[in-house]
TrEMBL record:
Name the record gives this protein: Fructose-1,6-bisphosphatase class 1
Recorded catalytic activity of this chain's protein: beta-D-fructose 1,6-bisphosphate + H2O = beta-D-fructose 6-phosphate + phosphate
UniProt remark on cofactor binding: Binds 2 magnesium ions per subunit.
Name of the gene: fbp
PANTHER family noted in UniProt: FRUCTOSE-1,6-BISPHOSPHATASE-RELATED, SEDOHEPTULOSE-1,7-BISPHOSPHATASE, CHLOROPLASTIC
GO annotation terms (biological process): fructose 1,6-bisphosphate metabolic process; fructose 6-phosphate metabolic process; fructose metabolic process; gluconeogenesis; sucrose biosynthetic process
Cited Pfam families: FBPase, FBPase_C
Cofactor(s) recorded in Swiss-Prot or TrEMBL: Mg(2+)
Compartments, record wording: Cytoplasm
Domain Fructose-1-6-bisphosphatase class I N-terminal: 7-199
Family membership noted in the UniProt record: Belongs to the FBPase class 1 family.
Length: 335
């Protein structure tokens, strides 16, 4: 039973028995994410005040500049999850390889692995636009008490037991699912407590917003070009509105509330698009499906893709169900 104004802590305890495997371990894990989110929120909020904005001078595994706040968020999430000894492994968009946490020790019975994008949309930090943290949780597939392996992380999205995001926006929210719908909690910064503000979040079946980086139009596949033209046509409820923040969590969050579609397609310069299957697309796809929306690579369900590598990229079409299906129709036509 959820009720507005419930704290996230109360909600986790009350809904613990709904979890598929209710040993309390997953609840502790969500609690740890809540804690790390508050710490990162504190740092992100003061970003304009102290000299921590700007590139850290390092390049991550995808060859992109890391911002200092990316580095900080990565450290905070990893530290919080490691110190509390509640997971056996972590993979992060900012780390080359996965991290094993005492998984070979037979006294550690931890079953879960976490995959995170610690600070998504970090190119927006310098201009004070909302950024987010995305997380995805699986049960390991190898036996407890043995070292975690790549196999534990390369699971299809449909195996997720929980996923969510934190949006550091005009207000900070934690939105997550454990496979029983999607609930959103807003942080009261004065007392540092998250309250249930958005129970049972759902994408409207259709919407009027399309979110895509149209600057890349020339490089898009014909199906995506045709869909964009369809969105712009003066017909029925169209033209739609174009809204693109360039911060997946923020674009997704708005579209879930208002109705819309987010697209990051493949292109002639990026054959698999930009977004990472494990850290970005799978968790957002789980949330979308739990909120009556849909997530596709243009042709099939994101969560059915069998991952082959940790930092794999895939094209991403996500949002209101009827809009994603319409975009898929255009993709099919130009196969
Ligand atoms: P990041 O993980 O390096 O921040 O990249 C992911 C972000 C998404 O949040 C956003 O939707 C997209 O990249 C924007 O990319 P582009 O600037 O190419 O449109
Ligand atoms: Mg990212």
């Amino acid at each position: 039973m959820s009720r507005k104004n419930q704290t996230l802590g109360e909600f986790i305890i009350e809904n613990q028995t709904e979890f598929k495997y209710s040993s309390g371990e997953l609840s502790k894990l969500i609690n740890a994410i809540r804690l790390a989110a508050k710490v990162v929120n504190h740092e992100v909020n003061k970003a304009g005040l102290v000299d921590i904005i700007g590139a850290a001078g390092e390049t991550n595994v995808q060859g992109e500049d890391q911002q200092k706040l990316d580095v900080m968020a990565n450290e905070k999430f990893i530290q919080t999850l490691t110190k509390r000894e509640i997971v056996c492994g972590i993979a992060s968009e900012e780390e080359d390889d996965f991290i094993s946490i005492n998984s070979q020790d037979e006294n550690h019975q931890n079953k879960y692995v976490v995959l995170i994008d610690p600070l998504d949309g970090s190119s927006n930090i310098d201009v004070n636009v909302s950024v987010g943290t995305i997380f995805s949780i699986y049960r390991r597939v190898t036996p407890v008490g043995t070292p975690v392996t790549l196999q534990d992380f390369l699971q299809p999205g449909r195996n997720q037991v929980a996923a969510g995001y934190v949006i550091y926006g005009t207000s900070t929210m934690l939105v997550y699912t454990t496979g029983h719908g999607v609930n959103g909690f807003t942080l009261n910064p004065a007392i540092g407590t998250f309250y249930l503000s958005h129970p049972n979040m759902e994408f409207p079946e259709t919407g009027k917003i399309y979110s895509i980086n149209e600057g890349n139009y020339i490089h898009f596949p014909q199906g995506v070009k045709d869909y964009i033209k369809y969105c712009q046509m003066e017909e029925q409820d169209r033209p739609y509105t174009s809204r693109y923040i360039g911060s997946l969590v923020s674009d997704f969050h708005r579209n879930m509330i208002k109705g819309g579609i987010y697209i990051y397609p493949k292109s002639s310069v990026a054959s698999d698009g930009k977004l990472r299957l494990l850290y970005e697309c799978n968790p957002m796809a789980f949330l979308a499906e739990q909120a009556n929306g849909k997530a596709s690579d243009g042709f099939g369900r994101i969560m059915d893709i069998e991952p082959t590598e940790l930092h794999q990229r895939v094209p991403f079409f996500c949002g209101s169900r009827l809009m994603v299906e319409k975009a898929e129709e255009f993709m099919q036509k130009t196969l």
